[in-house]
Design a protein that fits this description.
There is one protein chain. By secondary structure, the protein is α/β, with parallel strands linked by helices. The protein has a single domain (22-302), classed as TIM Barrel. Helix content is 41%, strand content 12%. It is built from 10 helices and 9 strands. It has helices at residues 59-82, 94-98, 100-108, 129-147, 165-172, 207-212, 217-234, 257-268, 278-288, 290-302, and strands at 27-35, 88-91, 112-115, 153-154, 176-177, 187-189, 196-198, 240-246, 273-275. Strands 1, 2, 3, 4, 5, 6, 7, 8 and 9 form a 9-stranded mixed sheet that branches. Helix 1 (59-82) runs parallel beside helix 8 (257-268), helix 4 packs across helix 5 and helix 7 packs parallel to helix 8 (257-268). It is globular, with a radius of gyration of 19 Å.
């Protein structure tokens, strides 16, 4: 029986190469606005229903999520602009076609884009390898056609993956994957060919699961600041990575948005914080630390 995925070597934080971020920063800080599109009548795959209330349509949930693209995105964008934050958005590529104003705003600000499938109501869990390969190729082609840019990062739509996803995304040309919420460092992901980096996303500092479990945005602000404080202390010895994640339909509500401003104001008031995009973090890690981490793991495994 396979007890764990054979994708990343176990290397405790106390025994691994030290990471130094640009400008001697203690913390590499990336901000993940989830810019998504949920379909009114999504096709059902027989494995997971995207809406909790059946039969479809689930007008309540659809309209609650759609609020984010109509109103919440613009409210959050104002806060991010105030603190000069470039997003590393987990993006449903369908947003680019359905909401061109949002696409224009993100491109104008030179955000990084992490592929999140076409819609957050369609999953890849039941795909064959050929279907998965076609899917990722189509995501990349569509994004390139609509933006003139290349996708470097991958995040499964609604966190859906297959056992082979890292292999397929590496072969498709992606550089990093954010689905593995496994560490406070970037890490090499073992794949059949090429190189792939884990840039860990977050579930804890994420507004959507907190709101679903009846925690409010003041609590979100409190735990974001507490997590930053701990990582900032630890980062003096060995650089740390921190992500905060939010959704326009949740954090973009009028009563919550001030708490995102509170978090950004607090973190960005510190020196030795490298506010970076996931693209920049992955490129820095590949250039300076990937090979050292692989070599260190090989030595440990031979011992």
């Amino acid at each position: 029986m396979q007890l764990a995925p054979n994708r990343m070597d176990y290397l405790p934080m106390i025994d691994r190469p030290v990471i130094r971020w640009p400008h001697n920063a203690r913390v590499a800080f990336w901000v993940a606005p989830n810019i998504e599109h949920y379909e009114y009548l999504p096709p059902l795959d027989g494995l997971k229903n995207p809406w909790p209330r059946t039969p479809l349509p689930d007008v309540q949930q659809y309209s609650a999520h759609e609020y984010g693209n109509r109103v919440g995105f613009w409210r959050l964008l104002e806060v991010m602009d105030r603190y000069r934050i470039r997003g590393s958005t987990t993006l449903n590529v369908g947003v680019l076609e359905h909401f061109p104003d949002i696409a224009e705003a993100m491109l104008k600000r030179n955000w990084a884009f992490v592929n999140h499938g076409f819609y957050n109501t369609r999953y890849i869990t039941g795909f064959s390898e050929e279907q998965e390969r076609e899917f990722f190729g189509r995501c990349r082609d569509t994004f390139r056609r609509l933006t003139g840019r290349e996708l470097k990062g991958q995040s499964g739509p609604a966190a859906s993956n297959t056992e082979r996803t890292p292999d397929v995304v590496a072969e498709a040309g992606f550089v990093y994957q954010t689905d593995w919420k496994i560490d406070d460092h970037p890490l090499p992901i073992k794949v059949r060919s090429g190189r792939l980096v884990c840039i860990p996303y977050t579930s804890e500092l994420n507004d959507a699961p907190l709101v679903r479990h009846h925690y409010e945005a003041d609590y979100y602000a409190r735990i974001c600041k507490a997590q930053f404080d701990q990582l900032y202390r630890e980062g003096e010895e060995n650089g740390r990575l921190m992500c905060i994640a939010f959704h326009p339909y949740a954090m973009g509500r009028p009563h919550r948005v001030k708490y995102l401003a509170e978090v950004l104001d607090y973190i960005m008031s510190h020196d030795r914080v490298w506010h970076a995009t996931t693209d920049e973090i992955a490129e820095h890690y590949l250039a300076h630390y990937y090979d050292a981490a692989v070599a260190h793991a090989a030595r440990i495994n031979r011992a």
